[in-house]
Amino acid sequence: AQSVTQLDSHVSVSEGTPVLLRCNYSSSYSPSLFWYVQHPNKGLQLLLKYTSAATLVKGINGFEAEFKKSETSFHLTKPSAHMSDAAEYFCVVTPNTGTASKLTFGTGTRLQVTL
Amino acid sequence: GAVVSQHPSRVICKSGTSVKIECRSLDFQATTMFWYRQFPKKSLMLMATSNEGSKATYEQGVEKDKFLINHASLTLSTLTVTSAHPEDSSFYICSARAGRGGETQYFGPGTRLLVL
Protein backbone atom coordinates (compact mmCIF):
# COMPACT_ATOMS: atom_id res chain seq x y z
CA ALA A 1 0.00 0.00 0.00
CA GLN A 2 1.11 3.54 -0.56
CA SER A 3 -0.11 7.00 0.35
CA VAL A 4 0.91 10.62 0.11
CA THR A 5 0.18 13.46 2.51
CA GLN A 6 0.62 17.04 1.44
CA LEU A 7 0.70 18.87 4.70
CA ASP A 8 -0.51 22.23 3.44
CA SER A 9 -3.51 22.75 1.20
CA HIS A 10 -2.55 26.37 0.60
CA VAL A 11 0.77 28.22 0.80
CA SER A 12 1.23 31.94 0.23
CA VAL A 13 4.65 33.56 -0.29
CA SER A 14 5.90 36.90 -1.49
CA GLU A 15 7.70 37.13 -4.79
CA GLY A 16 11.42 36.63 -4.31
CA THR A 17 11.10 34.66 -1.06
CA PRO A 18 11.73 30.92 -0.65
CA VAL A 19 9.10 28.29 -1.34
CA LEU A 20 8.59 25.13 0.72
CA LEU A 21 5.85 22.65 -0.16
CA ARG A 22 5.75 19.68 2.17
CA CYS A 23 5.10 16.08 1.27
CA ASN A 24 5.26 12.89 3.32
CA TYR A 25 4.75 9.45 1.87
CA SER A 26 4.32 5.86 2.88
CA SER A 27 5.05 2.92 0.65
CA SER A 28 5.43 -0.82 1.08
CA TYR A 29 8.02 -0.82 -1.67
CA SER A 30 10.99 1.32 -2.54
CA PRO A 31 9.18 4.31 -4.03
CA SER A 32 9.52 6.56 -6.99
CA LEU A 33 8.41 10.07 -6.12
CA PHE A 34 7.33 12.92 -8.34
CA TRP A 35 6.24 16.51 -8.14
CA TYR A 36 3.83 17.77 -10.79
CA VAL A 37 2.54 21.30 -11.30
CA GLN A 38 -0.86 22.21 -12.70
CA HIS A 39 -1.75 25.67 -13.86
CA PRO A 40 -5.45 26.60 -14.04
CA ASN A 41 -7.41 24.54 -16.56
CA LYS A 42 -4.24 22.85 -17.74
CA GLY A 43 -2.81 19.35 -17.54
CA LEU A 44 0.02 18.32 -15.27
CA GLN A 45 3.64 19.13 -15.96
CA LEU A 46 6.44 17.10 -14.44
CA LEU A 47 8.69 19.23 -12.24
CA LEU A 48 11.07 16.55 -11.02
CA LYS A 49 11.31 12.90 -10.04
CA TYR A 50 13.21 10.66 -7.66
CA THR A 51 13.85 7.07 -8.67
CA SER A 52 16.46 5.74 -6.20
CA ALA A 53 19.45 7.64 -7.52
CA ALA A 54 20.67 10.90 -5.95
CA THR A 55 18.54 11.97 -3.02
CA LEU A 56 18.67 15.66 -3.95
CA VAL A 57 16.77 16.05 -7.18
CA LYS A 58 16.87 19.15 -9.30
CA GLY A 59 13.95 19.94 -11.55
CA ILE A 60 12.77 22.57 -13.95
CA ASN A 61 12.21 26.25 -13.18
CA GLY A 62 14.61 26.23 -10.24
CA PHE A 63 12.72 23.71 -8.13
CA GLU A 64 14.38 20.92 -6.23
CA ALA A 65 13.37 18.25 -3.75
CA GLU A 66 15.22 16.07 -1.29
CA PHE A 67 14.28 12.46 -0.61
CA LYS A 68 14.70 11.71 3.10
CA LYS A 69 13.99 8.07 3.80
CA SER A 70 14.34 8.43 7.58
CA GLU A 71 11.66 11.11 7.59
CA THR A 72 9.63 9.62 4.71
CA SER A 73 9.56 13.08 3.20
CA PHE A 74 10.01 14.58 -0.25
CA HIS A 75 9.59 18.32 0.25
CA LEU A 76 9.69 20.68 -2.74
CA THR A 77 11.71 23.89 -2.49
CA LYS A 78 12.69 26.88 -4.56
CA PRO A 79 15.02 29.65 -3.36
CA SER A 80 13.08 32.54 -4.86
CA ALA A 81 9.42 32.50 -5.88
CA HIS A 82 8.22 34.03 -9.12
CA MET A 83 4.72 35.15 -9.95
CA SER A 84 4.54 32.48 -12.63
CA ASP A 85 5.00 29.79 -9.96
CA ALA A 86 1.45 30.34 -8.73
CA ALA A 87 -0.28 27.02 -9.41
CA GLU A 88 -1.41 23.74 -7.86
CA TYR A 89 1.36 21.30 -6.95
CA PHE A 90 0.91 17.57 -6.55
CA CYS A 91 3.25 15.15 -4.81
CA VAL A 92 2.94 11.67 -6.27
CA VAL A 93 4.28 8.24 -5.26
CA THR A 94 4.47 4.96 -7.12
CA PRO A 95 6.24 1.69 -6.34
CA ASN A 96 9.63 1.52 -7.97
CA THR A 97 9.10 -2.00 -9.20
CA GLY A 98 9.32 -3.73 -12.55
CA THR A 99 5.61 -4.40 -12.78
CA ALA A 100 2.79 -2.14 -13.90
CA SER A 101 2.16 0.39 -11.18
CA LYS A 102 -0.26 3.18 -10.44
CA LEU A 103 0.38 6.69 -9.25
CA THR A 104 -1.00 7.80 -5.91
CA PHE A 105 -1.61 11.53 -5.75
CA GLY A 106 -1.54 13.85 -2.79
CA THR A 107 -4.45 16.21 -2.38
CA GLY A 108 -2.46 19.12 -3.79
CA THR A 109 -1.04 22.38 -2.48
CA ARG A 110 -2.11 25.64 -3.99
CA LEU A 111 0.80 28.07 -4.14
CA GLN A 112 -0.07 31.75 -4.14
CA VAL A 113 2.66 34.29 -4.92
CA THR A 114 2.08 37.89 -3.96
CA LEU A 115 3.92 41.07 -4.87
CA GLY B 1 10.17 15.10 -25.91
CA ALA B 2 7.44 13.09 -24.15
CA VAL B 3 4.46 15.09 -25.35
CA VAL B 4 0.91 13.89 -24.85
CA SER B 5 -2.00 15.58 -26.58
CA GLN B 6 -5.72 15.42 -25.97
CA HIS B 7 -8.58 16.29 -28.24
CA PRO B 8 -10.87 18.07 -27.83
CA SER B 9 -9.70 20.47 -25.14
CA ARG B 10 -13.26 21.45 -24.35
CA VAL B 11 -16.61 19.93 -25.28
CA ILE B 12 -20.20 20.79 -24.48
CA CYS B 13 -22.87 18.21 -25.18
CA LYS B 14 -26.50 17.49 -24.47
CA SER B 15 -27.56 14.97 -21.87
CA GLY B 16 -27.94 11.51 -23.36
CA THR B 17 -25.33 11.90 -26.09
CA SER B 18 -21.93 10.23 -26.22
CA VAL B 19 -18.60 12.01 -26.29
CA LYS B 20 -15.25 10.66 -27.40
CA ILE B 21 -11.96 12.03 -26.08
CA GLU B 22 -8.67 11.16 -27.76
CA CYS B 23 -5.29 10.88 -26.08
CA ARG B 24 -2.15 10.66 -28.19
CA SER B 25 1.51 10.20 -27.37
CA LEU B 26 3.25 12.31 -30.00
CA ASP B 27 6.89 11.33 -29.75
CA PHE B 28 7.00 8.00 -27.96
CA GLN B 29 5.18 4.70 -27.90
CA ALA B 30 2.90 4.39 -24.92
CA THR B 31 2.64 0.85 -23.66
CA THR B 32 0.28 2.01 -20.98
CA MET B 33 -2.17 4.88 -20.85
CA PHE B 34 -4.20 6.09 -17.92
CA TRP B 35 -7.42 8.05 -17.65
CA TYR B 36 -8.06 10.34 -14.71
CA ARG B 37 -10.94 12.48 -13.65
CA GLN B 38 -10.47 15.67 -11.69
CA PHE B 39 -13.24 17.45 -9.82
CA PRO B 40 -12.96 21.19 -9.12
CA LYS B 41 -10.20 21.97 -6.63
CA LYS B 42 -9.59 18.27 -6.08
CA SER B 43 -6.84 15.82 -6.83
CA LEU B 44 -6.83 13.38 -9.71
CA MET B 45 -8.83 10.20 -9.48
CA LEU B 46 -7.63 7.27 -11.56
CA MET B 47 -10.46 5.85 -13.61
CA ALA B 48 -8.77 3.13 -15.61
CA THR B 49 -5.50 1.77 -16.93
CA SER B 50 -5.20 0.58 -20.48
CA ASN B 51 -2.46 -1.44 -22.11
CA GLU B 52 -2.18 -1.47 -25.86
CA GLY B 53 -4.14 -4.30 -27.41
CA SER B 54 -5.87 -5.46 -24.24
CA LYS B 55 -8.93 -4.56 -22.23
CA ALA B 56 -8.75 -1.67 -19.83
CA THR B 57 -8.59 -2.26 -16.09
CA TYR B 58 -11.11 -0.08 -14.29
CA GLU B 59 -10.83 1.21 -10.77
CA GLN B 60 -13.45 0.29 -8.24
CA GLY B 61 -16.61 2.32 -8.65
CA VAL B 62 -15.97 3.28 -12.27
CA GLU B 63 -18.64 1.99 -14.66
CA LYS B 64 -16.91 0.26 -17.56
CA ASP B 65 -20.04 0.36 -19.71
CA LYS B 66 -20.31 4.09 -19.25
CA PHE B 67 -16.68 4.99 -19.74
CA LEU B 68 -15.48 2.97 -22.72
CA ILE B 69 -11.74 2.89 -23.21
CA ASN B 70 -9.96 1.72 -26.33
CA HIS B 71 -6.18 1.54 -26.69
CA ALA B 72 -5.91 0.36 -30.26
CA SER B 73 -2.35 1.48 -30.95
CA LEU B 74 0.82 2.41 -29.11
CA THR B 75 0.10 6.11 -29.63
CA LEU B 76 -3.66 6.41 -29.23
CA SER B 77 -6.20 5.77 -26.52
CA THR B 78 -9.80 6.95 -26.52
CA LEU B 79 -12.30 7.48 -23.74
CA THR B 80 -15.96 7.50 -24.71
CA VAL B 81 -18.47 8.80 -22.21
CA THR B 82 -21.69 7.08 -23.21
CA SER B 83 -25.12 8.55 -22.55
CA ALA B 84 -23.58 11.48 -20.75
CA HIS B 85 -25.37 13.15 -17.88
CA PRO B 86 -24.68 16.44 -16.09
CA GLU B 87 -22.92 14.59 -13.26
CA ASP B 88 -20.34 13.41 -15.81
CA SER B 89 -19.23 17.00 -16.29
CA SER B 90 -15.62 17.13 -15.24
CA PHE B 91 -12.01 17.60 -16.29
CA TYR B 92 -10.67 14.42 -17.85
CA ILE B 93 -6.91 13.96 -18.08
CA CYS B 94 -4.98 11.17 -19.74
CA SER B 95 -1.41 10.16 -19.20
CA ALA B 96 0.95 7.87 -21.04
CA ARG B 97 3.92 5.78 -20.01
CA ALA B 98 6.49 4.10 -22.21
CA GLY B 99 7.13 1.10 -19.97
CA ARG B 100 5.30 -1.00 -17.41
CA GLY B 101 7.31 -0.13 -14.33
CA GLY B 102 7.94 3.01 -12.34
CA GLU B 103 8.74 5.14 -15.34
CA THR B 104 7.42 8.63 -15.58
CA GLN B 105 3.87 9.26 -16.71
CA TYR B 106 3.42 12.19 -19.05
CA PHE B 107 0.11 13.97 -18.89
CA GLY B 108 -2.09 15.44 -21.54
CA PRO B 109 -3.50 18.95 -21.21
CA GLY B 110 -6.95 17.69 -20.21
CA THR B 111 -10.44 17.85 -21.66
CA ARG B 112 -13.16 19.89 -20.04
CA LEU B 113 -16.53 18.16 -20.49
CA LEU B 114 -19.77 20.02 -19.79
CA VAL B 115 -23.01 18.08 -20.12
CA LEU B 116 -26.12 20.21 -20.31
Structure description:
The complex is a heterodimer of chains A (115) and B (116). Chain A is an all-beta fold and 115 residues long. Chain A is built from no helices and twelve strands. Chain A has strands at residues 2-6, 10-14, 19-21, 23-27, 31-38, 44-50, 56-58, 64-68, 73-78, 87-95, 104-105, 109-114. In chain A, a hairpin with a 5-residue loop joins strand 5 and strand 6. The radius of gyration of chain A is 14 Å and the shape is globular. Chain B has 116 residues and is mainly β. Helix content of chain B is 0%, strand content 52%. In chain B, the strands form two sheets. In chain B, strands 2, 4, 5, 6, 9, 10 and 11 form a seven-stranded mixed sheet that branches. Chain B has a four-stranded antiparallel sheet with strand order 1-3-8-7, with no helix packed on it. In chain B, strand 9 and strand 10 form a beta hairpin. Chain B is globular, with a radius of gyration of 13 Å. The N and C termini of chain B lie far apart (37 Å). The interface between A and B is medium-sized, with 26 and 24 residues.
Query: What would you call the structural class of chain A?
Result: mainly beta
Discrete helix count of chain B: 0
**Mean pLDDT over the full residue set of chain B:** 90
Largest interface summary:
A-B, 26 and 24 residues
Number of strands of chain B: 11
Beta-strand content bin of chain B: over 45%
Poorly predicted regions of chain A: none
Overall body shape of chain A: globular
First-to-last CA distance of chain B: 37 Å
Biggest sheet record of chain A? 6 strands, mixed
Q: Indicate the mean pLDDT of chain A.
A: 91
Q: Could you tell me the radius of gyration of chain A in angstroms?
A: 14 Å
Helix content of chain B: under 10%
* Count of helix runs of chain A: 0
Q: What structural class do helix, strand and pairing data of chain B support?
A: mainly beta
Regions with little confidence, pLDDT below 50 for 5+ residues of chain B: none
Order of helices and strands of chain B: EEEEEEEEEEE
What percent of residues of chain A are in strands? Answer: over 45%
H-E order of chain A: EEEEEEEEEEEE
